Every structure is written in C-alpha cells, then in structure tokens.
C-alpha cells in the first residue's frame, strides 16, 4: 500500500522538528560538554591520561640551539677598537626533560623537581663541538669589572694572580669545553681561597651548571578546585617571591612554570611565567591567530617593554641598575658578575648597542621569541624561546689584562630552546581535544540544518499534495457533468418535442 504525501509530510515535520530541537539543545549544551571535557583533560591528575603524560615527561622533541659570537679582532679590541663578532653555529642539543619527586598536596597543589639533560646532535648542527672559537674570558674580564671599586693594591694582586695562572682577556677553546666546562687552575684556586664565590666547584663553562641539573622545586596548582589556576606557580623553592630585585613587583613569582597555561585563553589574555634561569617572571602578549600542524593557535610574543630600562618603562625600575633598554641586568642572581640578558643580536634594543659592536643584524623572524598555543586548552603547539648572554667589559686600572678595552656590552652566545608537538602525541591531542569538540560543535548546525530541510520538504509535499487533490477534484466534476448530459433520454425527448412544436 502506497504512502500518501500527506502522511510523508507529517513524518518529515515530526522528524524535522525533533532535529531542530536537538540541534538547538546542542547549541546550549554542546559548549558545556566541550568545556567539561577540556577541564577533565587539562587538570593535573594522574588519571587524566594524555595531558598528565605531557606534563610529567614532555614526550615531544625539544632542542637547544646555541650560537657563539666569535671575536674576529681580539687584539684590536684589547687596544680599544670596536669589537667585531662573527656568529658561529648553531650547535644543536636534544633536550630530555622529566619531572621527579612529584607530590600532591591537600590544598590542590603539586610539587615536583624538573630535571634536564642535553645530547649533542651533530646532524642538526653547523659544525662540531671540536670547533674552536674566541670569546671574552669571563673569569678575567668579568672579575675585573667586579673588582673595579676595590683598592688599587688589591686589583694589582688580582692581576698578578691572573698572570700566574696564564689567564688572558680572551679564551680560544673548543665549543664543547666552553659549553660544558674546562679544567682551570684559577677556578680551583679561587674555590679554595673564597669558597662559594663561583657557581661551580669543578670545571668552568657557560652551561656547566645546566646539564644533569634541575630548575628547583616548583609547587603549582592542579586546577582541581579552579581550572583557571591550573599550572600557576604557588611557590618556587618554597618562596612566594624572590629577593634579587629592588621592588616588590619585580620580585613577584607570577604565572606558570613556562610549559602549559590555563585553558580558555582569549586575545586579551597574557602568558605570564617564572623563569629560574632569568631569575624573574616574564609575560608574553597576543600577536596574531594562526594554524600549527592543523591546529588553530594564538601566537604570543614578548612585548617591546620586556627588557626596557626603568626610564623607558617605569615598572622595570626594580630591575635596575640599568643600562640601555634591551638589557636585563642579571648580576644580582649571577654572583654579581656583570652579565646581561637580551634578545639575540640586540633585537628591539636601544640602537646604541648595535653601534658598539660590529657583526650584528637583528630581525624578528630569526631573533624574536614566540609561543604558539592552542587557546582552548592552554597547551603550546610550537615554542621558540630565544635569549642572549652578554658581558660588560672595559679597561680597569691596575688590572693589566684589560688593556685599553672600551666599555661595551659584548654578546657571548645566544640560544634558542624550541619544541613542537608532533607524531602520535599530536594525533592523540588533535583527536581528543580538537577534532571531537569540533565535531560536537558542528553537529548542532547539522541537526538544525537537516531539521529545517525536513520541515521545508514537508511543506512542499503538503502543498503539492493539495494542488494535486484540487486538480483531481476539478477534473472529476467536469467529467460527471458531461456524462449526465450524454446519457439522459428524458432530456433528449423533451428537446426533440420542443423542436417539433417550434416547427409547427
């Protein structure tokens, strides 16, 4: 038995109405479901699976690329001429990071120690750790600046000590030794004479204290009671603030530990984090929207005021004594050595710094730092943190090793710590936290669209059925009229009778 169009239209209306109703419910309920799933996955919880694994062991490729500034004219620099540097590298190291001593607390925080190891990757490097470069000798030129205000006899004694250990103003050594340490009789002598003066009791190197080390004990919020606080630092080494700087604001420990951030970020959000290596909190700001490996991201970058001096940006007065904008004086947390941090090649720094050293060419693509983050989850997809280590050098009376060196902040090295989510981790992340929420979001529009299409189809069927019925009814009426006239004999006889009478 054929189903009538009227019956079909009723079925379509019912189904369409249900689809619209379900889609409309999803408009309101869908975001709640999505947000609830994100919260469950982002909370620092051993039962949360993917995100906890990413937080604990960081199972993604992470690298440190190091560039040395080889001094081309050391003798001329010693005589007071402008230093000329040549960038060498990168020397690339794969970085292994993991968390240990993980302890959960009753106040919804978790403490841990994060360890790091570095392994040289020759295939990714331009050169080898055996490459020889020339850089300023921090033990001589750095210590000389530190001794500048000491009595002249003491400075002369220090100069004699340098000579007795054959320490000159510049070092020419293999990259591997400059990175991870070299034997120095001067270091041994100073450690015996003044214990604790130097950061190392063994070999002296720029990264000697980094390898096989930890970044201190972090205590962060798990997000169990408030997901907006997840990954935010509660304390570092038991401290709520540091004492390196001269203002309360600059000493604050703000933000996260620099690996993940709270979810549901907007373009107005910022990305604060505390860096033990920089001894301070820093904050990144939104720059633009993009896509990283098929995942929508927000790019956050360093604001131009990050390393501004107190004169150009008053909130940074606590980081002084300052020099030109673009330099962060980290001497207070680096054993009072005249060390400064900056962006590579003095990017976004006072142009005066570029005039004092030849061989630098800053640009944003190569020297700006950024983090591409998935705003819904607060998980970084692509990271590139770039920083430069600089040393203040100058001639110091009484210390002959400093010669006639002009006062200049000279770059030693710059390094980039980079990482990105890829492989199985990326696929799992995309499926669980991007694709499925996106499908759920699109379903609401699909159901509403199908429902409206069903209702519209029901209306079309109903109208066409009515037209067909009306047309059929009209044809039948006309056919009955003709049939009655043709087969009525009484009518025919009457007509014939009338015609005979008229003829008469």
Question: Can you offer a commentary on this structure?
Answer:
The protein contains 12 helices and 15 strands. The chain is α+β, with helices and mostly antiparallel strands. The protein folds into 2 domains: 95 residues; 360 residues, no CATH class. The strands form 2 sheets. Strands 1, 2, 3, 6, 7, 8, 9, 10, 11, 12, 13, 14 and 15 form a 13-stranded antiparallel sheet that branches. Strands 4-5 form a two-stranded antiparallel sheet. Helix 1 runs antiparallel to helix 11. The two termini are 63 Å apart. It holds the Pfam family CD36.
Give the terminus-to-terminus CA distance.
63 Å
Number of helices: 12
Radius of gyration, rounded? 38 Å
Classify the secondary structure makeup into a structural class. alpha+beta
Number of domains: 2
Helix-strand pattern, N to C?
A: HHEHEEEHHEHHEEHEEEEEHHEEEHH
Oligomeric description of these chains: single chain
Shape, please?
elongated
Low-confidence stretches: 496-504
Strand content: 25-35%
Mean pLDDT: 85
DSSP helix fraction: 25-40%
Q: Main beta sheet: strand number and arrangement?
A: 13 strands, antiparallel
Q: How many beta strands in the DSSP annotation?
A: 15
List keywords for this structure.
504 residues; alpha+beta; 2 domains; 13-stranded antiparallel sheet; 26% strand; elongated; Scavenger receptor class B member 1
Summed up, what is this model?
The chain is an alpha+beta fold and 504 residues long. The protein has helices spanning 5-42, 50-57, 74-78, 138-146, 152-164, 175-180, 185-193, 248-251, 351-355, 364-367, 423-486, 489-503; strands spanning 62-71, 85-104, 109-120, 132-136, 170-174, 213-221, 233-236, 270-275, 280-292, 295-301, 328-329, 339-342, 370-374, 379-393, 408-420.
């Amino acid at each position: 038995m054929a189903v009538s169009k009227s019956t079909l239209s009723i079925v379509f209306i019912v189904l369409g109405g249900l689809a619209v109703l379900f889609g409309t419910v999803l408009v309101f309920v869908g975001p709640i479901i999505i947000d609830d799933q994100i919260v469950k996955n982002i909370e620092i919880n051993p039962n949360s699976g993917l995100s906890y694994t990413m937080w604990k062991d960081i199972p993604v490729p992470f690298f440190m690329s190091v560039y040395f500034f080889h001094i081309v004219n050391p003798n001329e620099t010693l005589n007071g001429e402008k230093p000329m540097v040549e960038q060498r590298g990168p020397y690339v190291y794969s970085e292994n990071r993991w968390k240990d001593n993980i302890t959960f607390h009753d106040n919804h925080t978790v403490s841990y120690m994060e360890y790091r190891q570095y392994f040289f990757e020759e295939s990714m490097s331009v050169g080898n750790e055996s490459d020889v470069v020339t850089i300023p000798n921090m033990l001589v030129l750095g210590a000389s600046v530190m001794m500048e205000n000491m009595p002249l006899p003491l400075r002369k004694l220090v100069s004699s000590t340098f000579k007795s250990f054959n320490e000159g103003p510049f070092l020419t050594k293999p990259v591997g030794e400059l990175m991870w340490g070299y034997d120095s009789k001067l270091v041994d002598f100073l450690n015996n004479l003044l214990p604790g003066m130097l950061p190392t009791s063994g070999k002296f190197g720029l990264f000697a204290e980094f390898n096989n080390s930890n970044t201190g004990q972090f205590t962060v919020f798990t997000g169990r009671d408030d997901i907006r606080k997840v990954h935010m630092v509660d304390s570092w080494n038991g401290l709520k603030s540091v004492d390196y700087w001269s203002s309360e604001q600059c000493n604050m420990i703000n933000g996260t530990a620099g690996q993940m951030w709270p979810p549901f970020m907007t373009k107005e959000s910022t990305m604060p984090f505390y860096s033990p290596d920089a001894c301070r909190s820093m904050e990144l700001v939104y720059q633009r929207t993009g896509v990283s490996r098929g995942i929508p991201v927000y790019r956050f970058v360093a604001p131009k005021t990050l390393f501004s001096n107190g004169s150009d940006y008053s909130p940074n007065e606590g980081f002084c004594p300052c020099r030109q904008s673009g330099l962060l004086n980290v001497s207070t947390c680096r054993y009072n050595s005249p060390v400064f941090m900056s962006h590579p090649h003095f990017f976004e720094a006072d142009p005066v710094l570029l005039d004092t050293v030849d061989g630098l060419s800053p640009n944003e693509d190569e020297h700006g730092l950024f983090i591409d983050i998935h705003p819904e989850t607060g998980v970084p997809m692509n990271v590139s943190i770039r920083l430069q280590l600089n040393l203040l050098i100058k001639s110091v009376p009484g210390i002959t090793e400093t010669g006639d060196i002009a006062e200049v902040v000279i770059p030693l090295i710059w390094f980039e710590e980079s990482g990105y989510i890829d492989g199985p981790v990326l696929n799992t992340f995309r499926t669980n936290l991007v694709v499925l929420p996106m499908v759920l979001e699109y379903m609401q529009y699909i159901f509403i669209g199908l429902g409206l299409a069903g209702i519209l189809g029901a209306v079309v069927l109903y109208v066409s059925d009515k037209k067909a019925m009306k047309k059929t009814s009209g044809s039948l009426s006309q056919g009955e009229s003709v049939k009655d006239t043709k087969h009525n004999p009484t009518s025919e006889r009457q007509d014939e009778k009338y015609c005979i009478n008229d003829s008469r």
